[in-house]
Amino acid sequence: DAGITQSPRHKVTETGTPVTLRCHQTENHRYMYWYRQDPGHGLRLIHYSYGVKDTDKGEVSDGYSVSRSKTEDFLLTLESATSSQTSVYFCAIKRESTDTQYFGPGTRLTVL
Amino acid sequence: AQSVTQLDSHVSVSEGTPVLLRCNYSSSYSPSLFWYVQHPNKGLQLLLKYTSAATLVKGINGFEAEFKKSETSFHLTKPSAHMSDAAEYFCVVPHPGSGGYNKLIFGAGTRLAVHP
What angle do CA B42, B47, B49 make, to 5 degrees? Predict the structure, then answer.
């Protein structure tokens, strides 16, 4: 357990609406990540952060933005949700001492 | 470029029999390698990690994996399956980048079913 919580855990929304998912960590890690999980694809990186206000894109970043104004919180925003963004979203932190990522419990998002 | 291929999308075993989940990797250098497990409707849990200290790595819940550079493989095994082992398993290789953030490259996953 790496002290990661995600909220909400489940959300249903409509196409075209903005959605924000929150990842909260309690261990003061510098690196945080957002992934999406889809059948047959494993997990794919959306965005990551290497410090407050320091973020960068992953491999599937189109349609997503992130913000990190505090060390403990990493927000993922879907600017205008589409049905293709229906997925399970996982947040992760990296423990630098072991160079290992640990994952939160996930958020299941359905876009109708 | 780093990549991983999990050779079986589904594996089915009987309780008490051995488990073998196969993973091949591609890397331009000797990588770290991970196995993560995901139980239904749960997050991912680290099962074990290879870091070049030893080719045979022991993980949690009786699992182990052997790194074979000549075969570019990192197969996951367990001598005797338990019903609670039913889950999806992911083989993962880090892709180092600038600033050391290490993007993770995931295999597509292997779903393990365990029958009584």
Answer: 135
